[in-house]
Amino acid sequence: MYRAKIEVSLKPGHSDPEGQMTEQSLKELKFSANKVNVSKVYTITFEAKNKQDAQQTIEEMCKKLLANPTKDNYTYTIEEEK
What we know:
Layout: E1 2-10, H1 17-28, E2 39-46, H2 51-66, E3 72-80
Antiparallel strand pairs: 1-2, 1-3
């Protein structure tokens, strides 16, 4: 069993309305916020034969569903479950 933590964020130049709204709300609450970017984090536990197979599986998940290659970047870490 493996556990992956995947962070999906917008590529530079793409609109982030949720981040902009959060920034505005923080300023209204008198917090100093110069820029807010919103990302999604997925934690997925799954079976794989080995670490290389696990990495390939995560790449496929990201490319097919979790991230839009036109507008999103993604990073991930994979750990073996004990």
